[in-house]
Batch of 4 targets.
Target 1
Amino acid sequence: MPAPSNPFKAALREQRFQLGLWVALASPYAAEVVSGSGYDWLLIDGEHAPNDLPLLSAQFRAVAASASHPIVRLPVGDTALIKQALDVGVQTLLIPMVESVEQARELVRATRYPPHGIRGVGAALARASEFGRITDYLHTANDQICLLLQIESRAGLAAVDEIAALEGVDGLFIGPSDLAADMGYLGSPGHPEVRAAIIDAFARIEKAGKARGIMTLDLAQARDYRDLGADFMAIGTDVTSLVRATQVLRQEFSGEESPEVNKLESGY
Ligand SMILES: O=C(O)C(=O)C[C@H](O)[C@@H](O)CO
């Protein structure tokens, strides 16, 4: 019995666009609520949400029970954290702040069992192998891992070609907020120079045959990114959706003229 197949990885390989949402409420219950909203994938955020591994795992399980594919973003590209996440059953990882091919190469190795990598062997204890019940897990797990690396700085942009060329890197995700900040446009992910950098990066990622990912909280920008070739894209978050919905509801009831939206959304 092999490791479970990864439908998100298959969709990227077949170039089927995947629509996603950020999940940052750090609540398995909230993740389960959102998992019924019809997104192809949900990003469980271990970087900017107050998540530890047990809480990430609980949210992962809540989403995995739905038709949405759970992707976990770790706070950092750390071999030990990657090992723990894969052992709880995560098959698609998003790693932030990748800036060199050397860093990317080590991240690929951290997701693979020897001889192709350095992932520690603990499958007998791991939920990923159904606690040893998937008897061929060790020899079939590698192929179902989907590794997505974040390019969100000028250094990362400079390394896009080498990183995208690496075997074991399935997609590159452009982080517009941090990229804008690094480019000197803090709070302006929609700046024309940031958009130009995204267009250039998308072209290089596509040339390498890898998937192009991005996220935005602006629907017009989302349609632009889709037209520019995004293969997987998040178009909002649970947190900002909750802020907006509850704020607008009160304002509309109170008859306030123009419901104030969350100004942070523009800079996210
Ligand atoms: O830099 C970015 O943009 C991202 O990586 C996405 C943000 O971190 C996400 O948390 C939305 O704010």
Note: The pocket of LXDSK4UY is lined by residues 22, 48, 150, 152, 175-178, 215, 268 (CB under 6 Å).
Target 2
Amino acid sequence: MKIVLALGGNALQSDPKDKTAEAQLNTCKETAKSIVDLIEEGHEISIVHGNGPQVGQIVACTETAYKADNSNVLFPFDVCGSFSQGYIGYHLQNAISEELKKRNINKSVGTVVTQVLVDKNDKGFQNPTKPIGSFYSKEEAEKLQKEKGYIMKEDAGRGYRRVVASPKPIDVIEKDLIKNLVASGAVVVSCGGGGIPVVQENNTIKGVAAVIDKDFAAEKLAEILDADVLLILTAVDRVCVNFNKPDQKSLEVMTLEEVDRYIEEGQFAPGSMLPKVEACKKFAQFKEDKTAIIASLSKAKEALKGLSGTKIVK
Ligand SMILES: Nc1ncnc2c1ncn2[C@@H]1O[C@H](COP(=O)(O)OP(=O)(O)O)[C@@H](O)[C@H]1O
Ligand SMILES: NC(=O)OP(=O)(O)O
């Protein structure tokens, strides 16, 4: 089967005490085992990853460096997004190549720096929803809001984070290149962090300050590649209702009617579980026989067999 895998940026930095590059590489190595399991079973895999924590860390680095060495180099948000594609793509392609080599599978693996077209009038620019960077206490968040002018919001019971604009993806600029690479048999990492957001201006495209949700970008790529499965991998085994409450219940299957009802009830946190569920709904509606699943990073194989994860069905 043709599968688009979406890997969570938070899930790739899953240890709250260790956000180092080394820890992320170790998580990528573990994740690579699940990915190569699928390749070994004969599936064609394309990969999209998130960048929420990482792009926030990169933005914080450039802001700190700007003040520290007076270099006058303050990298804009879109450039920080491109850095995050290099950082995470490098770790993923390194980890996947190594795992393929260990199992004597001969396949090329590479990352495409990807620009994704958004509408400059998207309402996402007026209402920032995408959490980036680290988690803070309420007091720390209020201080950052005051001192740096950041917009801070609570993120799914995990603490406060900076939020930025998150417009919806319209098209993938490098889609023909990605299609050709996938058709050649390569494992392609693309649309990282949802893609670098660009808008059309006259005859040119121009980067903008935003972070596209990688779940929506992965759904768009799954449509472009006419994938059979959109498999969104994150830090929880299944989608839940009454998440983090005493009556929490995990779901094996969700119909589109249930998706709508649960969204209406506010069961899915904006900026975390909500976009995953919405992206799955869109893919399930795209054409007949399309499968959308949300599962944990370590259980991709089980999820495809219906033994783990939450399947969104028509
Ligand atoms: N209804 C829900 N069911 C399961 N998890 C939820 C729910 N609502 C919020 N979450 C949280 O959303 C997280 C996934 O979102 P996020 O961390 O943004 O994903 P990613 O791994 O793609 O970066 C889960 O790990 C969980 O903490
Ligand atoms: N860009 C993006 O959706 O990142 P996360 O997966 O880290 O939220």
Note: The chain has a mean pLDDT of 95.
Target 3
Amino acid sequence: MPLLRSLRGPEDLRALPPEQLPALAAEIRDALVASVAKTGGHLGPNLGCVELTIALHRVFESPREPIVFDTGHQSYVHKMLTGRVEEFERLRQRGGLSGYPSRAESEHDWVENSHASTSLSYADGLAKAFAIRGDERPVVAVVGDGALTGGMAWEALNNIAAAQDRPVVIVVNDNGRSYSPTIGGVADALATLRLRPGYENALLQVRQALHKAPVVGSALYDALHAIKKGLKDVLSPQGMFEDLGMKYVGPVDGHDIEVMESALRRARSFGGPVIVHAVTTKGFGYPPAETDQIDAWHATGVFDPDSGTSAAAARDWTTAFSDELVRIGAERSDVVAITAAMLHPTGLAAFAERFPERTFDVGIAEQHALTSAAGLAMGGLHPVVAVYSTFLNRAFDQLLMDVALHRQPVTVVLDRAGVTGTDGASHNGMWDMSILSVVPGIRLAAPRDEPTLREALRESVAVTDGPTVVRFPKGAPPVDIPALERRGPVDVLRRDERRDVLLVAVGSMVPMCLAAAERAADHGIGVTVVDPRWVLPVAGELLDLAAGYRLVVTVEDGGRAGGVGTTLTQALQDRGVDVPVRAMGLPQQFFDHGSRGQVLADAGLTEQDVARRIAEWTSRLAEYRETAVAERVDGAQQ
Ligand SMILES: Cc1ncc(C[n+]2csc(CCOP(=O)(O)OP(=O)(O)O)c2C)c(N)n1
Ligand SMILES: CC(=O)[C@@H](O)[C@H](O)COP(=O)(O)O
Ligand SMILES: [Mg+2]
């Protein structure tokens, strides 16, 4: 990669003669395939942004002129062009390159939140700040067609279009897909625009005609006619963006550097809000990705770059959910499914194939997903909304006010709940149990294995008077973990008659907690392990159990603040049971990317940590042994 390696930063790129740019693009494409094959990552989106990003960095002077990438998963090329090409061998690994922009990595990176549809809002804010400070530099946002289906993008457009003197260049990277083909009116409008002749393409025809016939003649006439037609078409006010009062440049071939540069320079010259509509192909230039019908290799694991093959994935939580939902769907014609542009990743593809008329892809629009689910429920159906845990944050108010306040029977299935790790801080599903703990009437299940997942799902769709939530992590479920005994919803998994510690293990923490209990037992501490299965509301049976122990320890793959430990402590207090509770979970911090295991270890959630903390806490509770257990049990039963 001689050309790519010669670039210390965008200024070197801008110094390259145009005739070298296709070779540079080829080197970048080869580097993407070679490095992502070893690490995994967002190959498809980045292959689609090679030429677009080269053109961006040749026209705009990053970092002084900000380039904000929406979602950020398509910023690998940007990173390669801003001096980080050598770091790709540790992409998405602890201490290595983040898979998204990172302010700690580079001054060229402005936004590291990987939640979609935010780039235009950042751009609007940046442009306002520059204007107030008397600074006329442009701001660039790169937003995908998928991200444009998110409501925030239109809230921002409404503001950006209002100020014709603020230079905001919005590059719509239109590859026609999120994971799956992008849905809805926005997608259709973009498709209509794609069919329009673009001014840049007309200019390209001129250049090509002049190359073919430099003398005046029919070729030149054709070319001039093309310009006139192109100008008429492209500047005539039509299309959703012009209707908003935005200038529109395009559609342009996002894989033609020369055309992209021309379009970007023209957009820059306007000095106000302008859309550059780039048409690209996800996976462009690598046939296994480009031809993939599922998601054009939106995100891939490790693969063989020559054959494009990868190891078969193990059966995961998502598949277990998918299988059970299809069974439920066959029994219950009122059950419908909703995805926010993630049909396959959230396991709804099988349901959609079996029940297409009962499956809705709403685009990257989680807020709309929840409130439209409330509408579906009011209409007599039982919606199952499947989203990644971290993306539920965005729809909290809709769950609280549109679903829970109206007591509507909506089931929310949270995949990627708990630490995910490699996608960085904004992708960890660590806030759901905390934010949901304040929702009146909510029921939240954290299954520990496939049988309890199936059970929780069936119990959820049987609820008719309010929201239910089922959460599970990324990856494969453990081998089934049977209960010794069930007390109401609470499963007793390990019993120790010394009644020292009641260890409340939540969902995916169960296997680790059972191992920690064995370690504690080796040191003479009697630990009973229970799985509440339904963590909200707190079960009375759990409170009764807790009253009989010297210490209660809770362990959850979620934020400690407002988590299961907090809600159990409050419930014990309300019941007048004064057994001490120690909560173990994720501290209130943003975790750098790394493997799930590494992040859990950072958070002190390993069997060694739990056993050690139990030993510490029980040693300090010696005086508690004198307090007659009977006194507390009597108190609880009054
Ligand atoms: C709020 C939110 N919901 C879901 C996602 C998951 N997600 C990541 S990328 C993506 C698709 C983005 O499509 P698009 O904006 O068209 O970019 P492309 O991948 O096509 O370049 C989705 C749904 C997310 N990052 N944020
Ligand atoms: C940016 C994006 O696409 C994310 O939603 C992320 O890639 C999810 O990755 P997994 O589906 O591998 O958890
Ligand atoms: Mg797209």
Note: The CA atoms of residues 42 and 299 lie 4 Å apart.
Target 4
Amino acid sequence: MVKICCIGAGYVGGPTMAVIALKCPTIEVAVVDISVPKILAWNSDQLPIYEPGLDEVVKQCRGKNLFFSTDVERHVSEADIIFVSVNTPTKTRGLGAGKAADLTYWESAARMIADVSKTDKIVVEKSTVPVKTAEAIEKILTHNSKGIKYQILSNPEFLAEGTAIKDLFNPDRVLIGGRETPDGLKAIQALKSVYAQWVPEERILTTNLWSAELSKLAANAFLAQRISSINAMSALCEATGADVSQVSHAVGKDTRIGPKFLNASVGFGGSCFQKDILNLIYICECNGLNEVAGYWKQVIKVNDYQKNRFVNRVVSSMFNTVSGKKIAILGFAFKKDTGDTRETPAIDVCKGLLGDKAKLSVYDPQVTEDQIQRDLSMNKFDWDHPIHLQPVSPTAAKEVSFAWDPYEATKDAHGVCILTEWDEFKTLDFQRIFKQMQKPAFVFDGRNVVDVQKLREIGFIVYSIGKPLDPWLKDMPVMA
Ligand SMILES: NC(=O)c1ccc[n+]([C@@H]2O[C@H](COP(=O)([O-])OP(=O)(O)OC[C@H]3O[C@@H](n4cnc5c(N)ncnc54)[C@H](O)[C@@H]3O)[C@@H](O)[C@H]2O)c1
Ligand SMILES: O=c1ccn([C@@H]2O[C@H](COP(=O)(O)OP(=O)(O)O[C@H]3O[C@H](CO)[C@@H](O)[C@H](O)[C@H]3O)[C@@H](O)[C@H]2O)c(=O)[nH]1
């Protein structure tokens, strides 16, 4: 029986391995992690991450051919194929701080593989890594190899959170990069035969190592660039009376452009886009490609601009101050159908409002109070390190309370900010919310989920990203 081991039981390692186990009953899959609570959770009824459809997949295979364990060394030494899916956060110190990928966790995983392996291994880069990482990993493994042969493959993951199971069942493509040597090609075939159990052959792409590594960074940069493009347009829509939804619909109808990923928002979040673009910028700079670096930097700058613009709209609409005012925050996760808050725009918006001394009441159906407090008190980039290395008892943000439902959050509030597009926000009883709020009552929709006209009829003053402005807001200065 082929044995697979995945180092890192996170958002990628857990769901990806669960789907491999489901689709390949003859393969034994072990997912290992240094975090004891995480592995305990994977072995319980309360999985450590919320992802639609994941529970069913895990329940079908756990204990049969899918195992979660903290016995990292044993499973690594027994495996034929080792996936490495550990954190690759942005460096916070030293050379390349604020841009380059921190490969500490990757390197320690590679050294451990070299220490415990007794048979030949295929080592698969599942984490998103800088181009040429495979070369560094190869050096670490072969310098300590004791005669054992390693083949390194790059197999970046393209799943999006909230749709991970759907994406894994039916991927647009699976990308496998490897050395163009007989042993390299053999390793590519071995991994290809795993995916071929359920992915049509023509969707499994094979390339050289560097193309596979770079394609992952490029794909995320292209996706994020589309969002920054439509968000830049949303500012112009507000200034001119155009409606960003109509503009994106009209633009997306061009088959060369396509309709997806053109929703204007308060800004993109998530653990990948900013981190991977910063990483791309750093690689460009290291290769002396400053104009190329500058091009991609702009995608992040527009994203920051969009978040600032939102906060400034809130403050300026409410008589230029939110000091002492209760603002309800509906949605904290970086997108719907996940409890993940890494790099969520809600953090920047909340921090911006707290900076103006607002009192916040936050509701999110999947994010805990503890997580929100952590996020609001953590330093930049700390969030993407393994949980046991994050600050243990963050200083609680005193002006932030946590609500169990949207009606409690909005009670006596002066304003409501919608920061995640949870489906339940589309069907809220806004009449009831209006009645219990201070007047004038404001709604700031950062996700374009509410029916603006209906809310204005109820009596709200409404700001919705990229939509024609409320008469109340028209004469306010547009600033960033
Ligand atoms: N989250 C996504 O949607 C997504 C999608 C595609 C690619 N990626 C990439 O995949 C990688 C992992 O992302 P994630 O979201 O799953 O991160 P995560 O933080 O959810 O999971 C990483 C896990 O690795 C564990 N870990 C770290 N060092 C370890 C070691 N030496 N031994 C054993 N376990 C160790 C951590 O404890 C953590 O549980 C990153 O490079 C990310 O950029 C993420
Ligand atoms: O039209 C859009 C689409 C998305 N977003 C925002 O963009 C962010 C990222 O969304 P999404 O890409 O759906 O989620 P991720 O889980 O971050 O997935 C991205 O990042 C992963 C990690 O690298 C990749 O594997 C995926 O292919 C890539 O889509 C979220 O804040 C969304 O709200 C918008 O504002 N407008």
Note: Residues 128, 157-161, 220, 223, 227, 261-263, 265, 268-270, 272-273, 334-335 surround uridine-5'-diphosphate-glucose (ligand 2) (CB under 6 Å).
